[in-house]
Write a structure and sequence with these properties.
The complex is a heterodimer of chains A (about 300) and B (about 475). With about 300 residues, chain A is of the alpha/beta class. Chain A has helices at about 1-25, 40-50, 60-65, 70-75, 90-100, 125-135, 145-150, 155-170, 215-230, 245-250, 250-265, 290-310, and strands spanning about 55-60, 80, 105-110, 235, 240-245, 270, 275-280. In chain B, about 45% of the residues are buried. The chains are: A alpha/beta (about 300), B mainly alpha (about 475).
Chain lengths: ~300, ~475
């Protein structure tokens, strides 16, 4: 009886695993190359610039948050915007960048608040996609991180199956450059997402930062700070841009994060969360993504903050 | 560790194999394994929570023995009181202290006195209300001489911490579950297969129904002032199915898991939304808690033995206590009170046991009268759910006020995608309403190919339409 049960359970489970596996090996037939693919170009940019540079990094609050030209012109440093997606997790974002940090570089890190909550800093489904863009980055994934993101594998696999079927059914001859935003081609030469700069905000998404603030993230940042200092570079934390509505909703959590960063962090913190809370009107589609007007305000503010720091 | 996680996907088969192949020599060994894995399961949240459950187990283990040994009734009562004080004390400190403290502060402030109330910065241990009630049932039953106390600490500790139902029930009665730890468990193929089906159905309800509804519900309840009446109605409707999918889904997974290990847990939900009146609803919703309150609160208070006045008083007490059990917030108390008010007419007219037969018995479709009764019952529970979900009483009243307005006939302003899943759920459960769960299959009437096809379709549904993972709602209680 038991043998029968185990045999049938195993056969059934193999069927499920095969289903998931098929999703993982399906080719990506989406004609639109998403913004994730810009990672390769950003890596090339980081490699090409040999002199000390300012590197902006974090989640989408950074890629949608700066006009790097403003920083470059005012601070006389070359600037690279390395950020793409908060869903990659803070650990992956920072460790990916660490491969390209050189002596004299100034790393401005603006983590999303969600990175400090629960295990989010290990990343979510978008990280799995990023690994398909740059498979060599698999070496950055620790065992604990893998355990954390493995729960997204079935969902990721089925999203690929869905996308594969959808793109086949559509039988699209869509141009790879047809999507205006969130594509590889929405990025300027610095790495900023710029194609939305002239647009007005659309259906702003508000967030709730539910969960426990995880001090492990700050310990991780302390370790990263040491590594960056060992390379002769500097790590500076600047808070992310956030719309007023989401800030008001999550004030308690944000203040808790700020207090814990001050208490446990051994790195430089440039500003306060309140410094980068802006009116809802200068946000594009999420509580973190600034419109063109918002980008100018934040970039100028960072210039002001950094000028003192770089002197 | 939560049921809908990769960790549990590895944990469950590992424990299953160890249980039946490595620790199968004696009952004691199997119980020992269950105890260890249950502590691992619980400690996965926070290992500090373990100290509480171990302490509670030690107290009740010895209280049970001392109650039995005591000759005088007053001595027995003393040990029972100690057990109650410690268990309720834990609940009081961890769950209710801040509520009482803040309520006192607000109450005095309204009288013109300002005090700085003491509040504790403590985390509520997961599932504390569930295992506390389960272990209290043990000492009460021993005191009532309905159960002999156990002298086997491993069996008792395993009973208190049995992982399938530890954090969100069903709240098992010691008289039902504890004796199962004394006897040799034999692997039962039919039971195990049906257990797996129940787990699959539970996952469907949690991941497809509850989690999809949760996304819309959170959006609406967090910004309810921005939406029209029909959207608020959708919010309440989706919450009714979110909480059903979430909690009954958890119960299905718990019961199914226990069956894999040869245990029988009590049914916790019996298709409550097909109830024709509120009394029937409460016989079918969270059955383990309702019967707990009936046996340990309602009956000791006199139950329905006294006059109408006593019946009404006792009914109000158990509904309000039941509301308070869910959480330290006035919203839960109002929710309980509202249900008591719904119950009142049935009680006064002596009609609370009218609908004890199965709905639409022997028919595929429901009769118009029964259909109308089901709709009315569902609607009034839906109103009560608004209090359950709202952050405070004012928001709940304001939500309902805005919902029941002329704008209820306008177009909803949110995605109605979960409605499709709800319709599927209702249809499947309607046809399965006379069984223990939604995926009960009589193998004599369906061949293997069809059965497996159903399982795979469900799994594809879960992966394809599953929303972002949400915690089980009842963990917070």
């Amino acid at each position: 009886m038991m043998k029968h049960f185990i045999k049938h359970s195993v056969v059934f489970a193999i069927g499920v695993f095969l289903l998931v596996f098929i999703g993982l090996i399906l080719p990506n037939n989406n004609p639109v190359r998403t913004v994730d693919y810009s990672l390769v170009a950003k890596h090339n940019l980081l490699k090409q610039i040999k002199q000390p540079k300012i590197v902006l990094t974090g989640g989408s609050n950074v890629i949608f948050g700066f006009n790097s030209r403003i920083l470059q012109d005012n601070l006389n440093y070359p600037v690279v915007n390395h950020a793409i997606h908060a869903g990659y997790g803070l650990k992956y974002i920072v460790e990916d960048l660490l491969q390209y940090v050189n002596k004299g570089d100034v790393i401005i890190l603006s983590p999303e608040y969600s990175h400090f909550i629960d295990n989010n800093f290990y990343g979510k489904e978008p990280l799995l996609f990023s690994l398909t863009v740059k498979p060599s980055n698999l070496k950055l994934i620790s065992l604990k991180q893998f355990a954390s993101i493995s729960e997204f594998i079935p969902q990721f696999s089925f999203d690929r199956i869905k996308s594969f079927i959808y793109n086949n059914v559509k039988n699209s001859k869509q141009n790879i450059n047809s999507g205006k935003n969130y594509t590889e081609f929405s990025i300027n030469k610095f790495g900023d997402h710029y194609t939305h700069w002239d647009d007005k905000g659309v259906d702003l998404k508000f967030y709730n930062f539910n969960g426990e603030v995880n001090v492990e993230v700050i310990e991780f940042l302390n370790a990263i700070n040491d590594q960056i200092e060992n390379k002769g570079a500097r790590l500076i934390i600047s808070y992310p841009s956030l719309c007023k509505s989401t800030y008001e909703k999550n004030k308690k959590t944000i203040i808790e994060i700020e207090n814990k960063l001050k208490k446990y962090g051994n790195f430089k913190i440039l500003d306060t969360p309140q410094d980068h809370v802006y009116a809802d009107e200068v946000f594009y589609d999420t509580s973190y993504h600034l419109t063109g007007d918002g980008v100018i305000v934040r970039s100028k503010k960072l210039v002001g903050e950094l000028k003192k720091e770089l002197q | 560790m939560i049921f809908n996680s990769i960790q549990y996907l590895i944990f469950l088969p590992t424990v299953f194999l160890l249980y039946w192949f490595v620790f199968s020599k004696t009952i004691r060994l199997q119980n020992f394994l269950l105890l260890i894995v249950s502590y691992i399961f619980y400690g996965w949240w926070d290992w500090r929570f373990l100290s509480l459950i171990i302490f509670s187990s030690i107290i009740d283990f010895y209280c049970g023995i001392f109650i039995d040994k005591a000759i005088q009734k007053k001595d027995k009562k003393r040990w029972l009181t100690l057990s109650m004080l410690i268990n309720l004390g834990f609940l009081g400190v961890f769950k209710y202290f801040n509520f009482f403290s803040n309520s006192l502060e607000e109450g005095l402030l309204s009288l013109g006195y300002q005090i700085d109330a003491l509040t504790l910065d403590i985390v509520l241990p997961v599932g504390i209300s569930f295992y506390t009630f389960q272990t209290m049932s043990y000492t009460i039953d021993v005191y009532r001489e309905q159960l002999k106390p156990t002298k086997d600490p491993v069996a008792f500790f395993s009973f208190v911490s049995f992982f399938p139902q530890l954090v969100a029930g069903p709240i098992e009665r010691a008289t039902n579950l504890l004796p199962q730890f004394y006897v040799q468990r034999k692997f039962d193929l039919e039971k195990a297969k049906d257990g797996l089906r129940q787990i699959l159905w539970g996952l469907f309800k949690k991941i497809v129904i509850a989690d999809n509804c949760a996304v819309i519900v959170n959006q609406i309840f967090d910004n309810y002032t921005d939406y029209n009446g029909s959207t608020l109605f959708i919010g309440a409707l989706f919450f009714a199915f979110q909480i059903y999918g979430d909690f009954s889904g958890y119960s299905d997974i718990a019961i199914g898991t226990a069956r894999l290990f040869g245990f029988n847990l009590m049914q916790n939900f019996a298709f409550p939304y097909f109830s024709r009146d509120i009394a029937e609803f409460w016989r079918k919703w969270h059955i383990s808690l309702t019967t707990w309150f009936r046996d340990y609160v309602y009956i000791p208070l006199g139950g329905s033995r006294g006059g109408v006045g006593m019946k009404v008083r006792n009914t109000f007490i158990i509904f309000i206590v039941s509301g308070f059990w869910h959480g330290a917030n006035w919203t839960f108390i109002i929710w309980g009170l509202l249900n008591a008010l719904y119950f009142l007419p049935l009680l006064l007219l002596n009609k609370n046991r009218v609908n004890t037969n199965s709905v639409a018995s022997n028919n595929i479709f429901v009769r118009p009268k029964e259909f109308f009764q089901i709709i009315v019952t569902f609607f009034i529970t839906l109103i009560a759910w608004v209090f359950f979900r709202a952050p405070n009483v004012n928001s709940a009243f304001s939500y309902i006020g805005k919902m029941i307005s002329t704008s209820i006939v306008s177009m909803p302003e949110v995605s109605l995608k979960p409605l499709v899943f709800i319709i599927i759920l209702v249809i499947v459960e309607w046809f399965q309403r006379n069984y223990k769960h939604g995926l009960y299959i009589n193998e004599l009437k369906m061949n293997k190919f069809s059965r497996w096809l159903i399982y795979y379709i469900l799994i594809i549904f879960i992966f394809w339409f599953g929303a972002e993972k949400q915690e089980f709602i009842y963990f917070q209680f």
